[in-house]
Amino acid sequence: MSKATGAGAGTTLYSLFFFAFLFGPLIIMVVTAFNSSSFPRITPWECFTTDWFSVLVNNARLMGGLGTSVIIGAGVVVCAVPIGLAGAMALSELPPRLRAALYTVLITPILIPGVVLGISTIVFWGIVGRAFGEEYASTFYNGIFLTLIGQITFISAYAMLVFSARLQRFDPTLTEAALDLGATPGQCFRKILLPFLKPAIGSAAFLTLLASFENYNTTVFTILSDSTFTTALASKVRLGTDPSLSALAVIIIGLTLIGAMVHEARTRRQALLRSGKPQLSPLYANPVTRVMTHPAGIAIMLIALAGLLVYLGSRHDASACKAGILQQKRAVQEQLLEEQRARIRKLREKAGPATTDAPATNNPSPFGGAFKPGMLAPKEETAPANPSPFGGAFKPNALKPKE
Amino acid sequence: MSALSKAMHGFVGRHGMGAAVFIGVAVFFWVIFLIVLPQMAMLDYSFRNNLPVADVGGPKDVYTLTNYAYFFFSANGSINTLDIGVLGNTMLAAIFVTLIDIALCYPIAFILAHSATGVAARLMVIGLIVPFWVNEILRAFAFRVLFGATGVINGIGQSMGLWDAPIDFIRADVALYSGLTYAYILLMIFPIYNAVEALDRNQIEAARDMGASWWRVHWRVVLPIAKPGIASGATMVFMLTAGALAAPQILGGPSSLWFTQLIYQWFNQSANWQRGSAYAVLLLVVCICFVMLLMRVFKVNIGAIGR
């Protein structure tokens, strides 16, 4: 770290601030998943509970949407990855002027607001459907079909960007050498270019799946009356919030962390193997640590840990604590009620013996007892806790000038 | 056209007929049926009346400007300040969010490219990516948990005695702006990072040796290199923020309306697809014009986006 690049306390401080902004909301959301309060919050802390997870799993609409999302996600991966590959290859082969034009066209779906894409998709396929004289129940009005089409439009562009980045590092002399040695062009494509692109295919597939699963703006229009996981989630959030959504976040973040750790282990292991002498590393030489630092080993350990946590969580019973909290709340309510009663009793005593025959204890008469016989007698002071909605404005004394 | 056929021939020679046909068909289908025709259909639709199914294609199905007129003028002929105001507010808010994102991300991208090393840099990259694997809706929800009337910030502030009554962050749009800023951070960092990474560190050191102050080094040496990255990131963040729907629906206050929400209402509550299309066209045109204008001003071309 050199001074010239501005490294130092300021840098560290800013990085810490930045990552606090990035992770703070997520951490807080995760914590709220374990609070028994029915609104997601940290203060006041009530009970540690795992009940919100079962609330989440029992939500039929979300789980139904999950199925739809998986179908759509698989379809998008199958279509968007080849289309993105085709786009990237076309870009790499075209002469510069044509390439710039095609690039502009292919990149626009990323920039166009998702709302606009969704609308244009349903409008266009609706017109196509009508042109074929189809009924409203046909494929062209099917939410899953339309969502697939709408998502492929822009998710292919993501895949294309991934492939373009990889293709830029491709050495075309490899293909030429193979052609000179007598390979057919088709063989070159299958045996040289596709293997070279293999890692990019993997990451493009992952990216497209994630993008499809996450998408809301386009999907909310194209899904019509159906619902995917994300749209079901959004309507649930809009209607009202409860910590079962935090529980969902816990699950997603957990899966993400496991994935990130396994991926990190894999890149480290590959770097180690590529260095040529993995035996020199103490972690690799020892068979136990070698298995433990193998990506599969780490995956198994993490999944086992997650399984253990789920098992422990499912056995945790918060009902006793919840009952305690309920009792406490009742006690507080009771106390408040008692105080109010005491106040009213005191008032009545002050108002004189005439009110003793009034009905019920805490009378919430809208007239504030103005029509009670004793009330017309001039009083010393106005009641502090008058339950009248008019704030005592209609009492005879209220109009008198104050002293 | 000759250039195209030449490229095609070269392509068949190198990758074979099968690959060439696959690429040709896939790109053609993508460009024509997924990108161009749907936009045309939407444009066409926006000039039509909202007719019952039986009348579609009949004598009443003529082109009209009423949908656009509705946006500009209210019923009695005066300017429709409500909808125009919503569009203007959306644009202003999107600009605001984009500026905040630039200010937040430029330092971190620079740190990532030139100050952090080894494990720290790797951890930072992972730390940047991981939050964005979480669903967009859930990220907005997290901000609702933070900023709600009984949310975490109000809870902590009140229990510490900083303020008495809960502050309505949602009505004040604090929650919305933070949520949007958060949502698209990643799209700002990586373009800037890619641009700044290309900078030779010796240039910075040379400038320092010549006695340039820290601010001056950034203004004269780093920023010009970072400019295409900033433009690319800013374009994406601006377009996505202006077109955001989930965050305004979840975090928006009762008085503030995002333009996409208007479009959503025309489609799903009023069932007037034609007018919704007209509004969508307006959003698209305004956004694209704005981005083009900025690219002209800052002398960046669209080819830089997504790199």
UniProtKB/TrEMBL annotation, chain A:
Keyword Ribosomal protein found: no
- A GO biological-process term: transmembrane transport
Looking up CDD domains in the UniProt record yields:
TM_PBP2 (cd06261)
**Keywords annotated in UniProt:** Cell membrane, Membrane, Transmembrane, Transmembrane helix, Transport
Where is the region Disordered? Answer: 348-403
Residues making up the signal peptide according to the UniProt record: none
Q: Which GO terms describe its cellular component?
A: plasma membrane
Q: Membrane spanning segments where? A: 12-34, 62-88, 100-128, 140-163, 245-263, 291-312
Family, according to the entry, reads as follows: Belongs to the binding-protein-dependent transport system permease family. CysTW subfamily.
> Know the name of this protein?
Spermidine/putrescine transport system permease protein
In which organism is this protein found? Breoghania corrubedonensis
The lineage, from the top, is:
Bacteria, Pseudomonadati, Pseudomonadota, Alphaproteobacteria, Hyphomicrobiales
From TrEMBL, chain B:
Location(s), subcellular:
Cell membrane
Q: Which Gene3D superfamilies match?
A: MetI-like
Q: Which PROSITE patterns match?
A: ABC_TM1 (PS50928)
Q: Membrane-spanning regions, if any?
A: 20-42, 62-79, 91-113, 119-138, 145-163, 175-196, 237-259, 279-298
Alphabetized, the UniProt keywords read: Cell membrane, Membrane, Transmembrane, Transmembrane helix, Transport
Among InterPro entries, the record links this protein to: MetI-like (IPR000515), MetI-like_sf (IPR035906)
GO CC terms, sorted: plasma membrane
The annotated topology with respect to the bilayer is: Multi-pass membrane protein
State whether keyword Membrane applies: yes
**Superkingdom of this entry's organism?**
Bacteria
Q: SUPFAM superfamilies, from UniProt?
A: MetI-like (SSF161098)
Domain ABC transmembrane type-1, residue spans: 87-294
Question: What Pfam families does the database record attribute to this sequence?
Answer: BPD_transp_1
Q: Which CDD domains match?
A: TM_PBP2
Q: Which GO terms describe its biological process?
A: transmembrane transport
As for family, the record states: Belongs to the binding-protein-dependent transport system permease family. CysTW subfamily.
- Can you name this protein? Spermidine/putrescine transport system permease protein
